[in-house]
Design a protein that fits this description.
511 residues, mainly alpha, Serine Threonine Protein Phosphatase 5, Tetratricopeptide repeat, cell outer membrane, SusD_RagB_dom
């Protein structure tokens, strides 16, 4: 069977944390040389790593919301609280922005925790003789390498330019790479090429250590596997496919997305088959955070959870809705009439503002019903890796490779639409003239407000334009951003640049 996934992951995390790549263990934490001495200590350290992903600066908040909020997906509403207003207005994004600082610090917090464990685990391994304990150490290390790769993949996505080629990336700024918690590693940005290579090396290590046992039976063990709150061999493949897409390594993207798609472990959630009366399997993924297509989600309980993704879209006070942001009309209008994602994602309400705006609000993040029942509003478990993204990755790679395969790409879009439409007959016809338009539009409709838009526009070298819609804020609603604008790459936080001894080079957006 699978190397045992840890139930103890939901316990209280160990008490060491950091706030940035330059600030590490606080004075009241466990001394470095006295920590991570037993297999149980290793387990506790991994609990801490998983726990860091609950941060509202990451997938349950800033990391998911800000990249889409910054673009053309939503509009600020007259009278709103100005939450994330500087991000939405685009031109007001500064190196001192606290929301961006929080993302940067939280990602390096994950990395520092990973390095802390990896620096100490060999001593535990040398003192361990039990085979099951040794397997558990390998499992923990695999999860740790994956967590570090995931954090670095987000850093390069947000704080670096798009990867164009190996030659170009060798001359572009990447991120600070650290392998050790303590040491004299230079606090200087590596090249973008070396940064991606670091991620790939971690994913290779993770794949080896997290490989499923050949005797694993999805029919009997699938319920445990599809809890989807732990890293495993297929989370590695899914992230590897995403990274390959971002690196324009089309053959690799096809290879790794196919490993996920062609496995027996995941299935696209249907919009037409119901899990209960009036609730489709796809809708249940958003209302209850359970689905056969989720590859990895950040696990929450009513006693341990992160941020509230839906807060800015509702601000519900049990009486009225006063959303800070509402969906862009062009997004809502982009769905076909028989596309059931519309009714899953959006529902029209009259807001509680004095202007009485009536608009389709983003019910996708209204919140987990179990949490809602305990008076916790707008909290959903972030779905970091989903099967639908893998279909979109593979379709794009098929049409971008040296010898485009429009037929196979069309089959992937057809598979996705069949799961999402009330009816979808025939096949999707893709050609050289329409393939990318179709795929780009499908990414908008499937991955709306999941944190992909900013990087998609950056790597496609496309700008965007906002035009005012009903009751949208004057400052920000009329905006035209050209392709390759410097703010497609977030500024490095100013406190990192100003830190004593820092050799960190700024981005163009810092200037």
């Amino acid at each position: 069977m699978i190397k045992k996934f840890k139930l103890y992951i939901l316990l209280v995390a160990v008490a060491f944390s950091t706030v940035s790549c330059l600030d590490k263990m606080p004075d009241d934490s466990i001394p470095f040389d006295e920590s991570i001495r037993t297999v149980d200590d290793v387990n506790l350290a991994v609990i801490g790593i998983y726990d860091t992903f609950k941060s509202s600066a990451l997938y349950s908040g800033n990391l998911t919301l800000l990249p889409d909020l910054q673009t053309d997906f939503v509009y600020g509403v007259n009278g709103n609280t100005n939450t994330y207003g500087d991000i939405w207005r685009w031109k007001d994004i500064l190196a001192t922005n606290t929301s961006i600082e929080a993302v940067y610090a939280a990602l390096y917090n994950v990395i520092n925790r990973c390095n802390f464990l990896l620096d100490r685990v060999d001593r535990v391994r040398r003192n361990t003789t039990d085979d099951d304990d040794l397997d558990q150490i390998d499992q923990c290390c695999g999860e740790t390498y994956f967590a570090r790769a995931l954090a670095y993949s987000e850093l390069v996505k947000l704080f670096c330019k798009a990867y164009e080629s190996d030659e170009d990336a060798a001359n572009q700024l990447g991120v600070i790479l650290t392998k050790h918690y303590l040491g004299d590693e230079e606090m200087r940005r590596a090249s973008l090429k070396d940064s991606y290579q670091f991620i790939l090396e971690d994913l290779d290590r993770a794949a080896e250590l997290l490989a499923l046992d050949k005797n694993y039976n999805p029919s009997t063990d699938g319920a445990l596997f599809n809890s989807a709150i732990y890293f495993n061999e297929y989370t590695v493949y899914a992230l590897r496919a995403r990274v390959a897409l971002y690196m324009r390594k089309w053959d690799e993207a096809i290879k790794y997305s196919s490993k996920v798609i062609d496995s027996d472990y995941f299935l696209l959630s249907s919009c037409t088959k119901n899990i209960s009366s009036g609730v489709s399997y796809y809708k249940y993924m958003w209302t209850n955070d359970l689905a056969t297509e989720v590859i990895f989600k950040v696990g929450f309980t009513v006693n341990s959870y992160g941020g509230a993704l839906g807060q800015i879209f509702f601000n519900y006070d049990y009486s009225t809705f006063r959303p800070d942001y509402v969906p862009a009309a062009w997004v809502i209008n982009s769905y076909d009439n028989n596309d059931l994602r519309v009714s899953t994602f959006f529902q029209t309400y009259t807001t509680g503002y004095s202007h009485g705006l009536s608009w389709a609000l983003l019910i996708k993040y209204f919140g987990n019903e179990t949490f809602y029942d305990t008076k916790i509003l707008h909290v959903s478990m972030p779905k970091v890796l989903r099967l639908s993204e893998q279909y979109l990755i593979r379709a794009e790679a098929y049409v971008q490779q040296a010898q485009p395969d429009y037929g196979r790409a069309g089959k992937d879009i057809t598979a996705l639409r069949t799961a999402r439409y009330s009816t979808y007959g025939g096949s999707t016809s893709l050609t050289a003239s329409n393939a990318m338009d179709v795929i780009e539009a499908e990414r908008v409709k499937e991955l709306y407000m999941e944190g992909f838009r900013l990087h998609d526009l950056k790597r496609w070298h496309k700008g965007f334009e906002r035009k005012p819609q009903d009751q949208s804020l004057a400052n920000g609603s009329s905006l035209k951003v050209e392709a390759d604008d410097p703010l497609f790459v977030w500024p490095i936080p100013q406190h990192e640049l100003d830190a004593p001894g820092s050799q960190i080079q700024p981005n163009e957006s810092n200037k």
